[in-house]
Design goal:
CATH topology: TIM Barrel
CATH architecture: Alpha-Beta Barrel
Binding site for substrate: 114
GO molecular function: oxidoreductase activity, acting on the CH-OH group of donors, NAD or NADP as acceptor
Helix content: 25-40%
Number of domains: 1
Radius of gyration: 18 Å
Active site: 56 (proton donor)
Number of helices: 10
Distance between the termini: 37 Å
Strand order of the largest sheet: 3-4-5-6-7-8-9-10
Site (Lowers pKa of active site Tyr): 81
Structural class: alpha/beta
Number of strands: 10
Order of helices and strands: EEEHEHEHEHEHEHEHHEHH
Shape: globular
CATH superfamily: NADP-dependent oxidoreductase domain
InterPro entries: AKR, AKR5G, Aldo/ket_reductase_CS, NAD(P)_OxRdtase_dom_sf, NADP_OxRdtase_dom
Largest sheet: 8 strands, parallel
CATH class: Alpha Beta
Strand content: 5-15%
Length: 278
């Protein structure tokens, strides 16, 4: 079991880079003041990990938030992703440059392939390996890759992805995929940990929240971390940003971790990596 200590704690990626295991996601956060203020609030409250993507159309605001915070760039773990229409070798290199320009930064801490696109993703990965070898990005990884997508990528890859960011919550645990990634040294990361808000309707979660005197969100986020899964809850509200991170003063019993695991029903609230059309 990986040790969970505090908001600035990290998991070590297989190349030795320390990745803060708790961060702020900015999906659907509007560019401009909304996302800039959320990033500043998070960083000034102690967060050290910000996750964006080119398709979110808010990289500029994220960059301004990092710059205007009280935290130095080198102390913030910044993530972005290459979108599907930019996949391919040359187009990925350009997309990376464009993301850096919007962010106002000269490197990224992690760059991800946003969705698996078969052979095009192999070309994308070759470009990402180049960016990594040129030290323009500290780590590279994938998002929404099932086991067969990763195995296919590895037939031509020189570098094993450092991270796989997946939809992950009590209704979609995919323990076999988690185990496969762990065996390969690929850090698992959760998106949509709150099941797009549906988590708050589950009686099991309400009972656990009462038992530990925590909120439903805090229970789920701590469950992520106890399972060794990086988590990046999204919020633009100051109170929620602070509340989400107030999870380091308790621990779920092994039985309660298993209880949440047992809710798994393979149910997605986002797109299926094997069946999407974008």
């Amino acid at each position: 079991m990986k040790k969970i200590t505090d908001l600035q704690g990290t998991f070590e990626l297989h190349n030795g880079v320390q990745m803060p295991y708790f961060g702020l996601g900015v999906y659907l956060s509007k560019d401009g003041n909304e996302v800039t203020n959320a990033v500043k609030e998070a960083l000034n409250h102690g967060y050290r990990h910000i996750d964006t993507a080119s398709i979110y159309n808010n990289e500029k605001g994220v960059g301004i938030g990092v710059e205007e915070s009280n935290i130095e760039r080198k102390d913030v773990f910044v993530v972005s992703k290459v979108w599907n229409s930019d996949q391919g070798y040359d187009t990925t290199l350009k997309a990376f440059d464009d993301s850096l320009e919007r962010l106002g930064m000269d490197y990224l801490d992690l760059y991800l392939i946003h969705w698996p696109k078969g052979d095009r993703s192999k070309e994308t990965w070759r470009a990402m390996e180049r960016l990594y070898n040129e030290k323009r990005v500290r780590s590279i990884g994938v998002s929404n890759f099932l086991q067969h997508h990763i195995e296919d990528l590895l037939t031509e890859a020189d570098i094993v992805p450092m991270v796989n960011q997946m939809e992950f919550h009590p209704y979609l645990v995919q323990q076999e995929l988690v185990d496969f990634c762990n065996q390969k040294g690929i850090q698992y990361e959760a998106w949509s940990p709150m099941m797009q808000g549906k988590i708050f309707d589950l009686d099991v979660l309400k009972d656990l929240a009462n038992k530990y005197d925590k909120t439903v969100a805090q229970i789920v986020l701590h469950w992520d971390l106890q399972k060794g899964v990086v988590t990046i809850p999204k919020s633009v509200k100051k109170e929620r940003i602070i509340s989400n991170a107030t999870i380091f003063d308790f621990e779920l019993t092994p039985e309660d971790v298993q209880l949440l695991d047992s809710l798994d029903k393979g149910q997605r609230f986002g797109p299926d990596p094997d069946n999407f059309d974008f």
